[in-house]
Amino acid sequence: MTERETWATRLGFILAAVGSAVGLGNIWQFPFKTATNGGAAFLVVYLLAAFLIGFPIILGEFAIGRRAKINAVEAFQRLKHPAWTIVGALGLFTGLWILSYYSVVGGWVLRYIGGSITAGYFGDPAMYFDSVSMGWDAIALHAVFMALTAGIVAFGVEDGIEKATKLMVPSIVVILVGLAVYAFTLDGAADAYSFYLTPDFTYLANNLGDVVPYAVGQAFFSLSLGMGAMITYASYVGRDDSLPADGGLITVLNTAVGVLAGFVVLPLLFAQFGQLPETAAGGGPGALFISVASAFADLGLLGRAAGAVFFFVVLIAALSSAISLLEVVTSYCVDRYGLSRPGVAFGVAGVLFLLGTLSAWNTAWLGWFDTLAYKVLLPASVLLGVVFVGWVYAPQAVDEIEAGSNLEWFGSVWIWSIRTFVLLGVVATLLLGVNSIYG
Ligand code: PHE
Ligand code: NA
């Protein structure tokens, strides 16, 4: 039996976890949702959701993973009882489900890096997106993205994931800052900032019932919760790390990158359109691949360079998230069945490629996969995890949270938060999500 892998350094763990958290959600959802849901007023709600609900849950996942020192499925069995592996299995399933279509979007991003360089989408971005988002083209690039993901995971925790994210995460931040500085020089930047962040508390007050569950659900997705990713990554962590400090830093950086992305995309859009175009209002594909793309098209030669750089950042953000999802199942198969890591990584990627061809064939499928993940699978999986740490495994979880942190009061506050408002927030999000689909 070979020894189980660990991170080489604490920074390596933090960067890998930030890489998981920082993804498409930060770039194509967060800025647009913020701008259209009350600006800084929405930001306040999102910060509350991320720090009061997301942060305690990420700590719960860290406590499970680090305590069990095993994959996210068997962790529950090792800590308590085989029956609880159902929680890990649901998380693993949810992650695979999400990865199947996340990779399709990754394929689009690859296409748009090329399309920037060749000015391929510069004529008519909307028509271009229609022609590349579905069908053989999308399937081929989805395969490439999946292969890149598997290629990194195949190299292992330290030599694959840690080395890759150590390069990727700082690059994401540096390049986004550079692009934000460039965007600052564009005409209309000031209007863009004020559109982005001017608080609209009236809007917020009138739409609390939609905005709050949305913010909480977004915090789950954005922090990569409920998919075994943070459990798995924490299982490679040493016991002298401070989990509250690491979790806090990850939550801060994830939010900061979302805010930063807004300082790139909104000035670009305002420079071309003088307002937020309708295709961007909801975030998602229309925002990135039609609206932002057309802003690059408008900039001519400079837009080709800026577009290539921008979509490259989106690519590495998506890749560093995708590898965390693939690692969940890979670590399970390696721990449990002693299978070869590269074999599992490429084998599972192959299966997910096939599942994802549905989403690549028709974006209606992609939307359906996403809705089910967002509104049902994710909150359900998060809820089970909260029940596990809050009630089934509470004393040991508190002990684990405090280990390495010398904050003796922290554990009791943390477990109290899990048992009260965190639980309430998760249950409400799940009920509202289910209701919005089936109600
Ligand atoms: N957190 C990533 C994002 O914001 C998505 C993701 C979800 C990654 C779950 C890994 C696990 O895009
Ligand atoms: Na995120």
From TrEMBL:
<dbReference type="InterPro" id="IPR047218">
    <property type="entry name" value="YocR/YhdH-like"/>
</dbReference>
<feature type="transmembrane region" description="Helical">
    <location>
        <begin position="83"/>
        <end position="102"/>
    </location>
</feature>
<feature type="transmembrane region" description="Helical">
    <location>
        <begin position="167"/>
        <end position="185"/>
    </location>
</feature>
<feature type="transmembrane region" description="Helical">
    <location>
        <begin position="40"/>
        <end position="62"/>
    </location>
</feature>
<feature type="transmembrane region" description="Helical">
    <location>
        <begin position="376"/>
        <end position="394"/>
    </location>
</feature>
<feature type="transmembrane region" description="Helical">
    <location>
        <begin position="248"/>
        <end position="270"/>
    </location>
</feature>
<keyword id="KW-0472">Membrane</keyword>
<dbReference type="InterPro" id="IPR037272">
    <property type="entry name" value="SNS_sf"/>
</dbReference>
<dbReference type="Pfam" id="PF00209">
    <property type="entry name" value="SNF"/>
</dbReference>
<keyword id="KW-1133">Transmembrane helix</keyword>
<feature type="transmembrane region" description="Helical">
    <location>
        <begin position="414"/>
        <end position="438"/>
    </location>
</feature>
<keyword id="KW-0812">Transmembrane</keyword>
<protein>
    <submittedName>
        <fullName>Sodium-dependent transporter</fullName>
    </submittedName>
</protein>
<feature type="transmembrane region" description="Helical">
    <location>
        <begin position="134"/>
        <end position="155"/>
    </location>
</feature>
<feature type="transmembrane region" description="Helical">
    <location>
        <begin position="282"/>
        <end position="302"/>
    </location>
</feature>
<feature type="transmembrane region" description="Helical">
    <location>
        <begin position="211"/>
        <end position="236"/>
    </location>
</feature>
<feature type="transmembrane region" description="Helical">
    <location>
        <begin position="344"/>
        <end position="364"/>
    </location>
</feature>
<dbReference type="InterPro" id="IPR000175">
    <property type="entry name" value="Na/ntran_symport"/>
</dbReference>
<feature type="transmembrane region" description="Helical">
    <location>
        <begin position="7"/>
        <end position="28"/>
    </location>
</feature>
<dbReference type="GO" id="GO:0016020">
    <property type="term" value="C:membrane"/>
</dbReference>
<keyword id="KW-0813">Transport</keyword>
<feature type="transmembrane region" description="Helical">
    <location>
        <begin position="309"/>
        <end position="332"/>
    </location>
</feature>
